[in-house]
Amino acid sequence: MPNFDPLTYRYSSRRNVVYAKNGVCCTSVPLGAQVGLDVLKNGGNAVDAAVAMAGAMPLLEPTGNGLGSDCFALVWIEKEKKLYGLNASGVAPMALSADEVRAKGFSEVPEEGWLPTMVPGAPAGWAALNARFGTKPLSELFAPAISYAENGYAVPVNVGKLWARDSKRIARVMAQDPSPYEYWWKGFMKPDGSPYRAGDVFRFPAYADTMRSLVETNCESYYRGELMERIVAHSRATGGYFCEDDFKNYHPEWVEPITQDYRGYTVCEIPPNGHGITVLMALGILNGMTMPEKRESAEHYHKVMEAIKLAFADTRTYVADPRYMKTKVSELLSPDYLAARRALITDKALEPKAGDPHCGGTIYLCTADAEGNMVSLIQSNYCGFGASIAIPGTGISLQDRGANFSLDPKSDNYLEGGKKSYHTIIPGFLLKDGEAVGPFGVMGAFMQPQGQVEVLTSTIDYAMNPQEALDAPRIQWIGGRRLELECEAGEAIADELRTMGHEVTCVVPNKFPYFLDWMPGIDEVVIFKTDTEGRARRAIAEADMIFCLDFNAVSRLEILSDTIEANTTARRVLIDHHLSPDEGFDLMFSHPDSSSTCFLVYSIVEAMCGAGAITRRMAESLYVGMMTDTGNFAFSFLTPELFRAVAVLVEKGISIPDIHNSVYNAYTEGRARQLIDYIGSALESAPCVELWHVWQGGFYLFEGRPVVHRAAVRFDEFVVDDLRELGETDLWNNKETNRLSFYCLTVTR
């Protein structure tokens, strides 16, 4: 086992490492894990638990997988000391071709409709796993899914959010041609046409009927029976490409896992058409490099990303259906070839290109039982709800894996009927000295290899426990030299990566509602009053130095005051421009004649480090503070020094018109919620409201008011997201004008 401390959590986390004697089940929604645990408690093994979970997850998390998904699995059988691989990915319909896609007016395979659909492999994969390693009948394993489908379950928070988001994508394609999508809409949306939200009870009797059919026929009805006939009939009726033989000729494949040694461990993946080989290539490149002592360093992120970029450049070029690959897996994993790729890495960011190796929207689950058997399984629609096509009366929604095909005739991944596409789902497994360490996996399409490499390096190179490795800040390569870095990594690391030539954007998993939430670094702010995780208290309690900005006394901080006062050892530094500062500070920069605290901060940075230390992102924040504290440079204390500082900030590349518009023309979530509260209290009887976006200026008038946009929404559906939708029309914080904007309401009774 990797050497880690289960009591150490250097990142913010809501979870602890879990130990269990008789088995473990893990997936992305609690009910899914509970299904597997119940199977283990009833005497099933790890494979039984995995199959039961896989059968329930399309219902419990339909935003990531469905009865029309593909799946891959790695199965460790302890008594054999052997790892088995299963590739249950589907094939394109024989009637589909690249020419057909181009004839429909597309330059690449779309993500919706019949063009990206492929024969689903997941049900056949479940049957294959059950037949080879299971101990329980499908009737017992699929009983929980049938029960939840008939009786309903409460939609989890994470699933409700994805449901609302993806339904908007499907609504857009339905507006162009509703016929292929109407059954999906009827099956997966409420009767009133709204998405299921967190806490709503979702029932799907058609899903239960399909699961019973799979039980009765050992999943054969899906490929050679009634369910197949329904899929093909709906395809023919609505413009699809499936025929009976597409399904009758399909079978999942047992495959030999491919491996890569990494610092004494053996990392195992499913071979192509999956891109688990990307993980192995990246690790093979990193294996010959010395990693920095600290994970949270620009050097660590740089090396990991450069290895990932080089691996992706190759796999996106050479990986395809193995029957069509001109490049062998052994060539891509050759030590000599990986050494040649490693030699390309310097201290500057690469623009990755494929080498020449010939010279030499998904759910993940894992299980373990008391005997030591383990399963690593992943199944996916690809994009959210997939192709957005459902089969009437079945609960089957079809994946859109065909979107990963190439339309370039020179590509090994060129679209042809009966061919598997380049596939992004990759279950992983870790061995050491021939013994199982355990399964691993992450979700997220092309993020999956990157996430796996980060988890593995965190675990092996930095001795992190599994939860730490998952909590650690993530970085993602999104093309060229562009990276996205979670803000917890820190702005200093982001700036250093920029100096290496990387284009970095700091991101957070969930947007934090805040006034001025557009500002760089604002998502790192922890709101003490709503900090349920205790991050603020821990940070203050552990601080050696506490900087107090823009207030003159700790006692003015209400409930925060006690927390600061409780730390009696930290030195306190005041930076403020208000009168009569409190005496309880070890060091004070108190200048009441200063126009703003941000000007004081600027002056301190300039005196200590020089203006060259100020980045553009820092400049934006400093300018906003100077601007707002002076009433847009209209109040007193407007000194020559202030405007010289502003000139320096402008030289950093900030846009004053954009900043001004973002600050003064912003419609924040706080104001939106006030609007919602008003509607809720005063207009409860109104069946509908119309929201009007108004600018002061020379636009057309409605009842004497200048109007540029309106959107009608039902009262019971009105949420902050409705306001954000307006932003997608370029009317939210519109940067083409400095006119003040606001919203008004008309009410339809």
Structure description:
With 749 residues, this protein is of the alpha+beta class. Among the domains are: 475-510, no CATH class; 523-663, inorganic pyrophosphatase (n-terminal core), CATH 3.90.1640.10; 667-748. The chain has 27 helices and 25 strands. A 6-stranded antiparallel β-sheet has the order 1-9-10-2-3-6, covered by helices on one side. Strands 7-8-13-14 form a 4-stranded antiparallel β-sheet, covered by helices on one side. The protein has a 3-stranded mixed β-sheet with strand order 15-16-17. Strand 15 (475-479) and strand 16 form a beta hairpin.
Structural class: alpha+beta
CATH topology of one domain: inorganic pyrophosphatase (n-terminal core)
Number of helices: 27
CATH architecture of one domain: Alpha-Beta Complex
Q: Which spans of ≥5 residues are poorly predicted at pLDDT below 50? A: 504-515, 686-749
The gross shape turns out to be globular
**How much of the sequence is in beta strands?**
15-25%
Q: Strand count, sense and closure of the main sheet?
A: 6 strands, antiparallel
Helicity level, as a percent range? 25-40%
What is the CATH superfamily label of one domain? inorganic pyrophosphatase (n-terminal core)
Distance between the termini: 66 Å
Strand arrangement within the widest β-sheet reads 1-9-10-2-3-6
Query: In CATH, what is the class of one domain?
Result: Alpha Beta
Based on CA atoms alone, the radius of gyration comes out at: 29 Å
Q: How many strands appear in the DSSP assignment? A: 25
Give average pLDDT, whole number. Answer: 82
